[in-house]
Amino acid sequence: MTSTGSGGRARPRPARPGGAAARARLRVSAPTAATGTGAPGASPSRPPAAAVAPAARRGGPAEPFPAAPPDRWPSTALGLGHPAGEHTQGSLFDVVKVAIAMLDTVGRVVLWSPAAEELLGWPSEVLVGRRIEELMADEQRVADTREAFRTALRTGGWQGLAQLRHRDGPMVPVEARISLLVDGDGTPFLLVALAEARTLQAVERDLAVRDALFEQSALGIAVLDADLRYTAVNQTLAEMNGVPAEDHVGRTTGETLPERAADEISVIQRQVLATGEPVIDVTLATPSTARSGYQSISYSRLTDRGGRVLGISGTVMDVTERYRAVAKVEHARRRLALLNEFGSRIGDLLDGARIAQELASAVVPRLADFAAAILLQAVAHGDDLPRHGHDRRTSLLQLGVAAIQDGEEVEVMLRRGARISFAEESCYGRVLRTGVPELLSGAEELEEATYPGDPKVRAALTLGTHSMLVVPLRARGIVIGLLVLSRAGRREAFDRDDLAFSVELADRAGSSLDNARLYVRERTAALTLQRTLLPQQVPQPTGVEVAYRYVPGSSGTEVGGDWFDVIPLPGDRTALVVGDVMGHGLRAAATMGRLRTAVRVLAALDLPPDVLLRHVHELADDLAQGPDEALLATCVYAVYDPATARLTVAKAGHIPPVLIHPPTPGPARSGGPLPGGQGRVLDLPSGAPLGVGGVPFESVELLIPEGSVLALCTDGLVESRDKDLDVGLGRLQAVLEKPYGSIQHACEAVLDTMEQGREPDDVALLLARLGRGEEGARTVGWTLPAEPTAVSRARRLVRGVLQDWCVEELTDTAELLVSELVTNAVRYASAPIGVRLTLGETLLVEISDPLPDPPRERHAAAADEGGRGLELVRRLALRWGARAEGMGKVVWFEQELPGKETGHG
Question: Is the pTM of this model over 0.85?
Answer without folding.
Answer: no
